[in-house]
Amino acid sequence: MNDNDKQLEAIRNFSGAYPKQIWSLFFSEMWERFCFYGMRGMLTFFMVYQMSMDKEVANLQYGATQAWVYAFTLIGGLFADKILGFKKSLFWGGILMIVGSIILTFDPKAFFFQGIAFLIVGTGFFKPNISSMVGQLYRSDDNRRDAGFSLFYSGINIGAFFGGILMIGVGKGEILSSLIPEHLRWNVAFGLVAIAMFISLVVFSFARRTLGSIGNTPINEDSEPEKKWYSYAVYIGALACIPVIIKMVSNTQYTDWFMYFIGPFSLLYLGYEMTKLQKAENLKLLAALVFIVFSSFFWAIFEQAGGSLSLYAAEHLDRGSLNVDPNIVNNSANSMFVIALAPLVGLLWIWMHKRKIEPNSVVKFGLGFLLLGIAFYIFAVNRMFASSGIASGDIFMLGYLVVTLGEIVLSPIGLSLMTKLATTRLKGFMMGMWFLASAYGQYIAGLFGAGISPDDNASPIQKLEIYSAGYQQFALYAVIAGILIIAISPWVKKLMGEVK
Ligand code: GLN
Predict the structure, then answer these.
(1) Residue 387 φ then ψ, to 5°
(2) What tens digit of pLDDT does each residue of 9-46 get?
(3) Would you say residue 106 has pLDDT above 90?
(4) DSSP secondary structure letter of residue 278
(5) Rounded distance between C-alpha atoms, residue 320 and residue 98, angstroms
(6) Is the CB of residue 413 less than 8 Å from the CB of residue 437?
(7) pLDDT tens for each residue of 144-174
């Protein structure tokens, strides 16, 4: 056994619930998500109220940005596997994000798309690869992995929660307004990304030393000196993508075409890679694909949060017994519930495992859909508690609690599964595909949302009926999907081989 293997063995032989390296990955990802959700929360607002864009155009542009960010994770994952390794990819991604933020800080209106393009490419190199590293902290048969991903998921949501509040708060002058001159508020808001990513990279540089060979480049520069230049080619290639992305995001029609192309392309590429693998490896990849396809459908319903549910919350809910604005509930209840519940659910898995009653990953996935379905039924039946088209904020909050439980049993488990099912050479790519499914989810969410959007002239009661009928239908889809997954679980389990 060489030194690298010994170090890896020592990392993976940790005692207790979590490996200690997970904490640096947790904090590093927390700061990255702080930026992502902070930006997400202010983009549309900034485009409409600061750049005077038409609302519909701004919405389309926002959707395009979201789709690109997640689609680029596929590229980030692919090049990490082949050339950079996870560690270098993550640094490169973080640096690109910092550059994007500095550009936006300088003049957010004049260089809007330039800055955003850097952020898209940067996130693509960062996001999938940090999740892949979490998976590497565990031996393949370690049952504590799902709990680790649940904890990691809390970090994601702590970042999301604070980023979502702070960035738009600074931009709009609700936070720190006495310190920041009015004409610089948006500059500072965009500049927070550079600060947060700087902290994220500093945290990661400490983690780097404790990670041993995890995330190192797959290229051995001593035995393959001709490949030394590959990483520079990736850096140059990534920079060359920026002008293309600027064009594509600013013209959403191109984004549509890209979305039609990238899914089939990724499947073909996977098919090509599969021709080089053993049967058992391929069956696992097939199982991963089943999870990926279902997950895009999960996000399509879940992501109503950013679309139809936010309009529903604005017009059809009371402030509930906590007297909170329903849009605030819509934007922050999910993160809050994840932060509180994800580690507990993680510990529940460990507890159930000890008693031999832990459901397998496929059943957990199905359970995620069933909970999603129940939550959307709760949103739908809320109309029975309504008067004059205004339904209950409390019931809405309850719905969010259940949606979040569904997310917790599906999303971190999905990350965990990708790290278990992908063969070593495709770990980054499969993680990228997992996030690509989110890109499609966002995309379909827009179509679903548009499909239940009521006519402006309808009365409040009629509008509430239309939304509620739509949510009931989504609930039914989710329940059917959940039952289907549980029904096919023996078959999927067979594909997964020894993976639990
Ligand atoms: N909320 C999670 C994150 O930001 C999951 C996102 C997703 O896969 N759609 O990482």
Answers:
(1) -130, 135
(2) 999 999 988 999 999 999 999 999 999 999 988 888 88
(3) yes
(4) -
(5) 40
(6) no
(7) 998 899 899 999 999 999 998 899 899 999 8
Any ligand 1 atom below 6 A from CB of 299: yes
- 72 closest CA partner among 41, 25, 116, 138: 116
Report CA(221)–ligand 1 centroid distance (Å): 35
Q: Using H for helix, E for strand and C for coil, what is the string for 364-385?
A: HHHHHHHHHHHHHHHHHHHHHH
Q: How many other CB atoms sit within 10 Å of the CB of residue 219?
A: 18
The dihedral region occupied by 325, where left means phi > 0, alpha psi between -120 and 50, and beta the remainder, is: beta
Angle at 136 between CA 135 and CA 138, to 5 degrees: 80
Provide the residue ranges of all domains of the chain, joining segments of one domain with +. 3-496
Token pair belonging to 386: 């309504």
- 2 CB burial (10 A radius; 0-12, 13-18, 19+): exposed
pLDDT band at 245 (very low <50, low <70, confident <90, very high): very high
* Average model confidence (pLDDT) across the chain: 92
Q: How confident is the model at residue 224 (pLDDT cuts 50, 70, 90)?
A: confident
Determine the pLDDT at residue 76.
96
Instruction: Say yes or no: CB of residue 302 within 6 Å of ligand 1.
Output: no
CATH of span 3-496: 1.20.1250.20
- Which of 438, 442, 443 has the most ligand 1 atoms within 8 A of CB, as the residue to mutate? 438
Cβ neighbour number for residue 462 with a 10 Å cutoff: 13
Region of residue 2 (phi > 0: left; psi between -120 and 50: alpha; otherwise: beta): beta
DSSP H/E element including 429: helix 427-451
Residue 131, ligand 1, Cβ within 6 A? no
3-state secondary structure at position 118: helix
**How far is the CA of 299 from the CAs of 269, 325, 445, in angstroms?**
24, 25, 7
| HEC-encoded secondary structure of 433-454 | HHHHHHHHHHHHHHHHHHHCCC
Q: What secondary structure letter does DSSP report for 180?
A: S
Cα–Cα distance for residue pair 409/359, rounded to 1 Å: 11
Which protein residue has the closest C-alpha to ligand 1 atom 7? 438
pLDDT 10s digits, 178-205: 999 999 999 999 999 999 999 999 999 9
User: Among 75, 78, 97, which Cα is nearest to 31's?
Assistant: 97
Mapping DSSP to helix (H, G, I), strand (E, B) and coil, where does residue 107 land? coil
Alpha-carbon span 170 to 187, nearest angstrom: 9
What gap in Å lies between CA 311 and CA 289, rounded to an integer? 33
